[in-house]
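Class, look over these structure tokens:
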Amino acid sequence: MVTMRLFFIVSLLIILSSCGSGRHSYSPYKKFSAEKLQKDFSVYRETLEEAHPGLYWYTSRDSMDYYFAWGAAQLTDSMTEPEFRRVLNYVTAKINCGHTTVRSSKRYARFSDTVRIRRLFPLSLKIWDDSAVVSANINLRDSVLTRGTPILAINNVPIKEIVDSLSQFLSTDGFNNTHKHQTLSNRGYFGSLYSSIYGYSDRYEISYIDSNNQIAKTLIRPFVPVRDTTRRQGPPPPRPPQPSRRERKNIRRNAVRLLKIDSTEKVAMMDLNSFGRGYGLKRFFRRSFRALHRNDIEHLIIDVRSNGGGSVTNSTLLTRFIADKPFKVADSLYAPAKRKKYSRYIQNDFFNRLFITFFTKKIKREIIISGIMSDIRLSHAKKSLRGQNICADRRKFLQRHNIVCGHRTRTGKRDDHW
């Protein structure tokens, strides 16, 4: 009995110690040798050159070679993961492919989810081509830089120059700046990327336009969650009741897709922030258009400005509801090669090769992309990507109502910063 009790205590101590060490074993400040970084960069470059179907669509081969060489030239000394990722982000953005981005390692992501945040750039901004305004300020005591305040410069650097610099690290389809501006406008993203590129400051000098339409300056400090929350006086507010599992699911879904109807003005707004799976979009679309018909809605606005894409099946389904004639999304898909030297670095490569094996055929066609002539594997997919009429409610809606769609911005996955 004593032996069993001792064994239980020792086992419990081992488990607790392993949990503690697992949480703190990763350090974002760990530096990797230049040799390891160069090896990883070579795999990164050669994998893209071998398998990326549109590496030279928007950027010539000579230019991409230049950017690859620039990236390799930065790896002369040891770096932390965030430092290395910054180099990769810069080079990757030159491809101008919105579906080609660099993410943190799983260990870094887990660390970021559990570590206590030390300080934050306090402002979120709404970005346009030539201007920016405050969209949120987590320094609640700040009565100067309130929502809607135009920002002219940060630490004497014009905001347009800052936006141009940050945009060099953001991937987008072609030369679409709308996506970059929307990404920087996502809550907390501007401050996160700004701090990554420009570093943290003890204080920031902000140039802005005040309520009298005059140029003014103010100094702000970074937001420190622990310090600022401990300054709050009075007892902490009572903890609100926690939502049930179903309520949490509905909250998550409503954050992605929501229909709002003004029956008086006969106007409806559909917020659609993703075409991803798992949000019940098929059922949502059907219920929404039935509700529009029942309420005799005359105008529908579909807001996809923050939509990061997702399943082509879902986006095609929505188009089938609003299109007034048959349409074709695509008639073929292609890949530059079936077997790849770096397959082990490509996620789901086995299933991709199965698809290529059974649903494609190899053809020799003179497809010239920036001077590159390639053999391709072509997959015909005419039927599955066509749109057709789907229901009577849809036809009735199109016959009587106007539809206005917001522009799609290719924002990618939305990052939850703050």
